[in-house]
Design goal:
Chains A, B, C, D: Its cofactor is NAD(+). Four copies of one chain form a homotetramer. By secondary structure, chain A is of the alpha/beta class. Chain A has two domains: 231 residues, Rossmann fold (3-Layer(aba) Sandwich); 151 residues, NAD(P)-binding Rossmann-like Domain (Rossmann fold, 3-Layer(aba) Sandwich), CATH 3.40.50. Chain A has 17 helices and 15 strands. The longest helix of chain A has 24 residues. Chains in contact: A-B, A-C, A-D, B-C, B-D, C-D.
Chain lengths: 506, 506, 506, 506
């Protein structure tokens, strides 16, 4: 079953390459066919309910309590094939989209090229992703390349209503709003798929819920579908399971494990978002603070680098000797959490593991210690252990709780232990651009691939395409790549246009 | 006249030590005594109208439009000697105060000592500062030391209403709310000073407006006043002018130029707030961005260090060869703004000068360039030059304007050229704690000084007190100071307890 | 043929994973059997003649011109089965060995364990490596584990005579001195192998010359040899060629590509040695210098990080878009060499490529520009193009040449374009310790492996052994590794003792 | 007496501004007039015997034991008015001078200007400084400006013999060699001063020994002398004492306390030389090392920044709360030496104090700990306490001693506790250039000053000249200074050409 059981699969960290998913015994096709609202709610992917913040949401103070499903709205062209919060927010949303366009140079470059050829002409894409300004740029790029799109949200909290409005105003069939119920969630997905006279031939998914829905409800649709592009760890894992079970009916592209995503999302994004997330929630001064970072994978490396640079004193915990030795060489004291827990001002988890910060640790922390999670869904801090009668919880700001011990000691818990970077900071558009471009290229590749190039399996993008995505992002930095001379290329045994790295390079 | 003319006196930068205030020709005592609301509005200090943001204000969504002056409120003890927005917000405000207390260890230490002696017993302090959680900690510390306090805001925008409520609930006579009119501003100050049966004997001022008001309205009060403690550059400048003109009636302490403030406020605060201010307003990714920082004084040094650490490529402009050479040795290309203006992603001014970024520069910037000011009031960027018919202004978020050129180019202007760190980021409580502690110690010193120690002049705190303030902040870092042995002290010719630096050390 | 043709195989850089060795057409067994001295000199591996410096060699001022081959020496125990420069230098060499022991904690730990068991009892190891203090620690560790050792140098310049003396004094059969002729080189190797009554059963090689000699001269010896441990890129490449050609007679361990070597040698070593190499040769000040680093692989990353940290302004050139994007995100301007060549103070090559710095570039450099190579043998800078009549070469210090243009312009060329870190700086013992430990463990593994575990092929150490090597080095940093709980290990699907990384992790 | 008593006056650190020289009770004029060699040896300034290394000296292997005083040498022009080691080394020395010229752009710029005017025409300068390549550039610049020069060494070890030869070859009257006896030292000085038919009218001194000699032996010479330029702390202190005692006969320029020297020498030089000094002596790897830096003045700041950047974990000790708080904000744990002494890999003193590292500390250090001094002459580490019978000293390399405890523990003591940066690393020429330029400008100023501008007192260079020196060094970095517009200058109340800083700025 694609149920709750198989959801603690996460990315962001090296530990996870080895995950064996031992607990996942139920199979996909055993899922009961009749499900009420309650059982539906159990089948939604966990990533669909992660809380999520964005700059734009700060401005969203609409107090209209009517459900979008109960409203009838039309855009200025009279089109009403969408379901969103409020079409009147379109102007504001459009501005957010335009801001995002400036940081997504590669997609804009693809649009320019599309003026000549339309590589997605005829494509009917059904998508299910976060509905944000960045997604809007992707969607409008796919359209510029020739595709028709229908879209739902992959997360019940993450929709930027203004952006959804801007898309609807431009006559995209969007079905999404911030704060959907779980019933709404599946209703929206169904509205994307189940249309008279329109049948999708491509899927773009983030988390696998859309794919799952079609498998469950409209398995025949796969006859016309040419492929799936999936971004998330969770969704990719589901696809590999399907493939293993011989049930994958179409080729699928695993965008999550492309080099550009791995190399850039984790290290560079976290380097920026750890500072942003901590500041926005706590206004803490970094200078001189003693910080423990649990885990020295890419995420931990990014957090450590940023905090050290801002004058914090950083300690690292690790289980893997190789990463541990890197932490040492990079100038961090490698400790066990117990050794420094009493003196820590901030504790950050980046392990991909569970219960890294236990109640015992929390009991020993000093007054005012800030605790947050940059690594894994919501398992790293044993938040459940704090839900006991003797402790008082006090919500002091959005995403900030004080947990108060009987002696008055307060621990500052951020985002209730969920991902700080999703909940409390924004993600740089530029980094999202890398992933979005990879998605668009994967779409083009799958849609145009000659019969037989791809089988019913899960594929990684070839290294060369990773390199192409990277090269499309260089002009943003006014960066000038050097070209190999013929003589040099021969000497190195490389093609002048790449690929420059072996396929196993990560 | 203490009018608008003499307001472009600023701190934050080395340039300014030489400011000669050439434009200030009007004299203090020429001020007309009868002023209407309009002329009042011209006499308010500029710092009183700088925009100002704080975390707490995000949560302030009260839509009550009634003026506090028209409301009758009482706290839970039945006390009504205050005028604030809404006494019901006291609980939330109290929480903010408690959070601040944790980052203001020195004041809390002073409170502990005050349990034995009350060095401010009998002190009647009238204060005029920003009304924030940090100020509340100061005010309640002064009270713990024995003082009675009445307080108004020094800025019409900066009051945290919840904090004012928390103070009022604790029976402090606070007269302040966010969004005062200028008439309100002076009315509040007057309510602090003009009370039956209570006359202040100490002044704590930030900007000089309170001092000015007493000079103008109640000059006789100075007979009982033992001294003034002033924090701001503007206020200190006013005091020096009074002193020069022979009109200063009481001793005054210049807290602004204490070592701890200069050494910590500028460098360390700006190192943190430049990142925070840019992120909160624009969500910009720092990695790989080309940034020009104009001015390499302490503020510029802080900005450059933070941005370099986060992966930006930083260029510096300077007029002073010594700071220029420091920039070179620190690894920054020293350029003229013209040379790099076309390639800049972000331009930050930190000079204390005027028109450092001109319309000509703005015309040549590339699309999407972010422009902001960390240095001086609002003079560094020639914002006025952008108010021309061919340019369109578009407010895209709070404190963020797009200025749009006829060809579609957009410049992202933050805080309309006012101080980014005041307008768009929070200031670390810990750094404010240093200044607040200095204020408290200056209060104690002036109030207890024997007759004759201080004349009617402006004084700097002795180096030893600076060192004492610093030492009170070390425990926060669990930092352990080394003590000189007798032999070492003799060898160095120093007293074991300091001062360790010459008085001219800055 | 193991001749000059197959020597441009190098490590140190990502480019090189793709090298296809297109030029290598001659086969091993076509080598003529009778070779005179001259042809011998052509067959020596290039790494054997790289120049090499070490701290100890500074003190080596012995002017004795007699060839060691013509001397008869005995150590204090009367043993004379060695051939070195001067047995009297043993005390000094012993001190250097003792200093090295302190930075090689893992080998010392192995020795302690060896007091109980002797995993190399019966092993007769013939070795051919650099003869340095670090090698001495390795050799004496192998002996402590039970092995008998005979050793020659893999490089005609790199022997520390004092260390060789210290080994000889301890009755190790060492045949090596600094400044061997090529005839000496092979004579020494032969003296290790060709002994009456003693036949090696293990080979430890660095560059493949020893292996080659046995293949050529004593192929029957392989019947008793259990395996080869090879460290260098060159030697590993030779082994893979043998394997491919079906001519490898025994199992071989490829130590060069172990994770610990790749992850630590390149990045961390170069981070330190680039500064050291530049200072020792030129005393250049780093602050404010404009430096171009060609190549942003691990070596380039290390160089860039160090120079940026010391206040240099660093530009990067790259051919690979992915590394290029990393350089951008890390805060370096990505340029073509041509664009910045005129303003560069220092140019450093780290590409693994050839002719990266051409005569044209050299012609355009400014007076005093320093040029050096951290990447590849001696191909990266086109030094040959500087050997023209109009240019004057002036040797100003050891390893430092001024190349003087007709107009008086001088370029400062270091180590004649050979590897700066080998020629002009020392390599941190600690990093060598990682490799040496891996060699020792590979020895133990091969020697004790049950029949059939290893075939006649080239093997990489399993990830688990990499992790073991790393863990042995953690105590040096007083670093404390965290252990997974049973629950966590189950959750992650990992064994509590590792391996923690997939085998493809690099 | 200018004897040993007054020698612990040092620079490099803020502590020292307060030194009161309590022990110096003897007066200058009480010095006995007849002194034998032994008493002479006691009167030499301590800085004259500090050990000193330079790159060039590595190549100096001349074994000629004849005293230069016993040789008769002539240069190629037949001139023999000098006394140096070996005139044949002139070519090598000339090359070193030419290398230095490239990093001393300001002096070279002065030479160019001197082609028109000769501001030192008629000047007869007698100098006493380190005789290094950098000094040669200064001396030849003074000559280019019109002066005649005679020169001796201010330190018995620091002369680069090759450079002295190059100067002699160019007919400069130099009297200096490496390894002078103390008698030689004074003899050389006397040879500079006591010449028939030539009498100096300007003094350039470093340490005050030359000035002292003239005071003692030829007091009448001061009638013709127009001024003294003194660089060292020691010499400046002597001058202030003379001035205080009313015995200073001519104006003197204190170059030591010029802004450019203070701001650049300490921070930037030490940032580079700490790494260089440690590497050249110990080849230690910095990554992951635990380092204690005692003192967080400018020197300590430079050391900490460099080591942190290279991956060391740095702890700081301080006595002054203000510097302590800076260390905290900069991200260093502030500790007492006792707390971390057991875990330290490296201990560095930068305090200006005495006995900062005591025998007790040394007893508790772990095996292999490196101890060195970057701060003060040779007082900071209590080296004397290590000269006890139970400890064994072993000289392992030049400037490196192992001190061995009875249990076998070894401490690695560098330069016997004297200054590491003088003894074991080179000082960047560029930074010396700043001081040398200041000396040259001070010379010009004093020599050309109209009667009465300077009295018989000690002067600091005006801020404007500091700024001029800085500006002469900017072209090296291709740095472009911004100029104030008229409007801006007026606004700031500054002259467009500076000075830009108040005189009290340091």
């Amino acid at each position: 079953v694609w149920g709750l059981n198989n959801l603690y699969i996460v990315n962001l960290n090296f530990y996870l390459y080895q995950i064996q998913f031992a607990d996942q015994k139920q199979e996909f096709n055993k899922r009961p066919t009749k499900i009420g609202r309650r059982s539906l709610s159990r089948s939604i992917s966990q990533s669909s309910t992660d809380s999520y913040s964005s700059a734009a949401s700060y401005t969203d103070s609409s107090d209209d309590e009517t459900s979008p499903r109960d409203k009838q709205q039309k855009n200025s062209k009279g089109n009403g094939d969408f379901c969103i919060k409020n079409i009147k927010q379109a102007d504001f949303g459009r501005r957010e989209v335009e801001i995002a366009e400036q940081e997504m140079p590669a997609l804009m470059a693809l649009r320019k090229r599309a003026q000549g050829e339309k590589p997605l002409a005829g494509a009917k894409i059904v998508g299910c992703t976060h509905i944000t300004a960045q997604t809007a740029v992707l969607m409008e790029t796919l359209a510029a390349l020739g595709a028709q799109c229908r879209w739902a949200a992959c997360n019940i909290y993450s929709t930027q209503n203004e952006v959804a409005a801007a898309l609807a105003e431009n006559s995209y069939s969007v079905f999404a709003w911030k704060g959907e119920s779980e019933d709404d969630f599946w209703w929206c997905i169904d509205r994307c798929v189940n249309v008279e006279g329109w049948q999708p031939n491509m899927i773009l998914d983030d988390g696998g819920d859309l794919t799952h829905w079609i498998y469950k409800k409209y398995p025949n649709m796969f006859k016309k579908i040419k492929g799936i592009v999936e971004e998330s760890v969770t969704g990719v894992h589901r696809l590999y399971q399907l493939s293993k079970a011989g049930k994958l009916c179409v080729p699928a592209m695993n965008v999550n494990d492309s080099v550009t995503k791995q190399k850039f999302d984790n290290l560079y994004c976290c380097r920026e978002s750890i500072l942003d997330g901590l500041k926005r929630t706590t206004d803490v001064m970094f200078g001189g603070k003693q910080v423990v970072v649990c885990g020295y994978g890419e995420v931990g490396k990014g957090c450590c680098a940023a905090l050290k640079a801002m004058g914090s004193i950083v300690y690292v915990t690790e289980i893997d000797p190789i990463c541990a030795l890197q932490a040492c060489m990079d100038g961090f004291r490698l400790v066990k959490l117990n050794e420094v827990i009493r003196q820590a001002d901030i504790v950050i988890t980046c392990t991909g593991n569970k219960n890294v910060v236990t109640r015992e640790h929390l009991d020993r922390m000093k007054n005012g210690c800030i605790v947050c999670n940059m690594g894994h869904s919501n398992t790293e801090i044993d938040v459940a252990s704090l839900r006991t009668p003797e402790l008082t919880w006090e919500r002091v700001r959005s995403q900030v709780d004080h947990v108060i011990w009987p002696d008055g000691k307060r621990i500052v818990l951020l985002a209730e232990g969920r991902l700080l970077n999703l909940s409390c900071s924004t993600v740089p558009t530029f980094v999202l651009s890398i992933t979005a471009t990879t998605q668009a290229l994967a779409m083009i590749e799958l849609y145009n691939a000659p019969e037989g190039r791809y089988k019913q399996d899960v594929y990684l993008l070839p290294k060369k395409m990773d390199e192409y995505v990277a090269s499309l992002h260089l002009p943003t930095f006014d960066a000038h790549l050097t070209e190999l001379s013929d003589e040099q290329a021969k000497y190195l045994g490389l093609n002048k246009n790449g690929p420059f790295k072996p396929n196993y390079y990560r």
